[in-house]
Amino acid sequence: MSTTKIKKQIDFIVPPKLNGEAIVQPTAPVVVADTTARKLLATYDPDGPYRGMRVRETDTSNIYILDGSDVTDDANWTPDHIETFDSIVMPNGTRAEVDAKNAGTDPQAVGEPAVITDEDVLQFRRGDGTLFALAAAGGGGGLEGNSFVAVYGGGADAVANGTALKAAYAAAKALTPNGSALSATNRACVLVFPGDYALVAAGDYVANLTLDAQYVDLIGVGSSASNIIRGDGQLITQTANDVLIQGVTLKSEGIDYYDAGRPTQLAAYYPDSDLPLAKLVDVVMMNNSVTYPTRAGIEYSGTYTDCVCSGDYALGGGDVSTAIFSGKAVRCVCGDKAFGGGTDGTFSGEARNCVGGNSSFGGDTFSGKAYNCTSGASSFGGTVLTAAGEVYDCFAGSDSFGMWFAGKAHRCIGGVACFGSWSGNSGTCVDCTASTNSFGTNWYSDGAGAQLSATARLLRCTAPAFPTPAAGGKRTLCIETTTSTVITD
Fold this sequence. Notes:
Layout: E1 3-6, E2 23-26, E3 30-31, E4 37-44, E5 51-56, E6 59-67, E7 82-84, H1 95-103, E8 115-116, E9 121-125, E10 131-135, E11 148-151, H2 158-173, E12 188-192, E13 195-198, E14 209-211, E15 216-220, E16 227-231, E17 236-238, E18 244-252, E19 267-271, E20 279-286, E21 292-294, E22 299-300, E23 303-305, E24 308-309, E25 324-325, E26 328-330, E27 346-347, E28 350-352, E29 365-366, E30 369-371, E31 384-385, E32 390-392, E33 404-405, E34 408-410, E35 424-425, E36 428-430, E37 457-459, E38 462-463, E39 474-476, E40 478-480, E41 485-487
């Protein structure tokens, strides 16, 4: 018989113990003794006994298994090796039965996949011996693996779902992904499927769910709007540093307790302390009349992307000096006194395409970087925008960009009393616009020092009027709207 040797891997035909061996494929159908043409699907080990599979052209419902080395001898195709081929049927068996087949004590038939069906679980064995499991949620099981636990929101009510969520988190903490301990590069997670999860705390001021395990993430499946986690008091408390929360809505339903702008006020998201490795992605944090979306009055140095906070004092806001935002925010939307906002808040981080309300992005001090951000009054340094502060393509209301301005601003727009309205302007402003009493013009009667200092540089800026700079200060191509004058020093 003339054949051509071709090396292939045919997973749906080749038994696992034969994967990777050379395969011989004939160039044409082979006619055996009974004169019925059979097409050779595969043969193995051409230097030893041939083992192969054939399909009769007149009998396409069966596969014929070859034992022996003579493919033309019809006697080698024994009745014991004929299997139906009209469909592929997963074998039903317990874990022990399938393990026995894989161990060789009860060999599986050729091409039979390893499947386990005990305990309402359908498990598939991969080539490396690990298992992937699929089960019906109604049976108490679900998607399972060694790196995640899934919770489905299909319980009798929202409280039952919340209880299941807590149990899933406890189970995820015990996982050993890929057979190794949890680490920054070997993580576990809880997959939260769409549903309403009501968490019940042990007491009024006790956390509903505490994320206290490093490298165990909480990840919603689908839209955050469909994965609702809610409850009274401290809804989600986080004590572990390296944790990702993604794709969920945290809804604080609150209790009658109020401590405005301070760390003790209850919140939907309640970090125990500053957590620089914390990551929140597509998380909606909702407050009610007596809670905040996030804990107020502490430092936030993590990374926050596509987050929405429905109330005030979010992401480092607060009326205390410990209210600091030093992390990174991207496409986040918050209310008043956010991103290090509030009367004593500091912004020293980075924000891109974010929105805040009044007194946000450093209600007191701005020393970070902001790109294409929008806020209300008294923002981007309600008191001072330091020499380290940089703002690009940002918009704010009155009393913003520092009563003392010492940093850099490019293509920014402010209202009344912006860019140094009290203590002066010693920084650089390019293509910026503001209303009256801005760019170093004295706004308050006791602000005698307001002016453009010797280091001030204004290029193509627009305002109703500009003060005369100190020696060395420069106004270049600036438009004074009250006199329709272009000024260059």
